[in-house]
Structure formats: C-alpha cells, structure tokens
Amino acid sequence: MPEIAYLDTSLLCALAFAEESSGTLKRLLTNYDGVVSSNLLEAEFRAALEREKGSSVEADRWLGLVEWILPPHPLSQKIALILEVGYSKGSDLWHLACALDAFPKPEEVTFATLDRRQWQVAKELGFQMLPQALEALPE
Q: Which residues contact 72 (CB under 8 A, 6 or more apart)?
C-alpha cells in the first residue's frame, strides 16, 4: 500500500518560508508516495504568501506537489466525530474532516501539521504523525 501524507497549511507554510524545521520536514515528506490535501489549503497558502509578499509562481510550485481531495458531500458526521475528540477551529476541522472522509482508516495515513491543537486531535483520531513533527510544533 502506498504511503500517503495529508498536508495541512501550517506545514506547507513552514516549508515555503524555510522556517527552522523546514529542512527536516521536507526530507520526511519526500519519503511519501503521495501528498494530499483539501483544496482549502490553496486559499490559506496563497493568503499566507500574499501576507508575506511571496510570489504566485512560488505558490504554484509548492501547490503542484499536492493531490486534491474534494468531498462531494457534506462532512457533518466526520465533523461531529472530530468535535467529540476535541475542539478544532473551522479550517483545522475542515482539514481533519476531509482527511477522515478520504481515508476511513486514519492509521494508514500520516497527518502532517505544525499546529499543536490540530496535531493532538489528529493523533487522537488515530492518524500517524510525522516523525519529529512534535519537536517542530510552535508553543
């Protein structure tokens, strides 16, 4: 079975902005057969680049690494399940729900995030987590 990583915007921003942990995280991500995300990542990432004055060419390069998950139905049940595990803000909740919807066996997928709360909820849901990601999480 191919190894898949679901990529959250926090980790993509760390890579694109070459934050301290980005080298290690980039090497870890190259070990996966595929990197997927909700198309919400595109809007969040492009907004972050604009805020930091990045270029659209750079955005296209990074976003070209991602295969998109586009749920064709409401994710109400997945959202309810996630909220039972713990609170997540709207965008984090959407990423988690899309990942759960696309991968009914979360233990077979790595959830790649640098958001501490989202990391905790994803781990509790049963997703694999990127090795060393916890050390890279901001306080």
A: none
